[in-house]
Specification:
three-stranded antiparallel β-sheet; single chain
Length: 314
Amino acid sequence: MADDSFPARPAIAASQLNQLRRLFTALLPANPFYTKKISQAGVPAAVASLREFSEKFPFTTKQEIDQDQRTHPPYGTNLTFPLERYTRFHQTSGTTAAPLRWLDTPQSWDWMVGNWTEILSAAGATADDRVFFAFSFGPFIGFWLAYEAAQRIGCLCIPGGGLSSAARLRVMMDNGATILCCTPTYALRLAEVAAEEKMDLRAAPVKTIIVAGEPGGSIPALRGRLQELWHGARVFDHHGMTEVGPVTHECAKQPGVLHLLEPAYLAEVIDPASGKPAGPGQNGELVLTTLGRIGSPLLRYRTGDGVKLGTRNS
């Protein structure tokens, strides 16, 4: 669908190319992982075009990163700066393989927080909102970025780590939380606990539930059930990964359709079997290059996420 709020395609591509060139300049020869990868692939250090980059630069896989961290424990060689420059540690959930460890410099973290402010803005969050974060605040990146992004735009941020579900509900109600951040299934669980505890969710001023971590936020049946249980609260979907940061947010005009944060990422959709580009409307695998996470970047990273490439007029 057409949306005048997005920059024109040539402007996006020009910005992506400029950022990609700056990224290469920062990585060579400072980042051992990508210096070796670029050298072995015979890829020119000067990026001529986005098309050349996509055609010549090899994919990065989760298996490569895992092997690099096993060979060079604990963090591997995909670090652009000396270790003392890094101030943030996170790791993947480890649901399908051993957890990957990820470090960030203050600059890279700031870039990702900026991306999350875009997600909050798309969800309609303002400085008047009170945001409740119902997650554990452990090493999984979860809503850590969202918490700091909400602070940045002036929201009152209410952490729920370590509390029982009933206690979280009481804190939400007592403090007038207007936005809830959690997984879709946990939003369902909170509604169940509210019923068990005889708490009336109509008394809760929650107007938006920002969900992530599971695909349910874009499944119509689950969205409808959540909106029913939370008495009309809007369900707003988002997805991201520890390895790359926040990636997409729901379209404000088409619920269930996700927009990629193109100013921050160079995205490709490929046929997972052949590695060749998928066309508009075709199912494929999302491949991402993080343009601003210079301290621990990923270039042409095969995310394993299945997507369908849309167009602005779809």
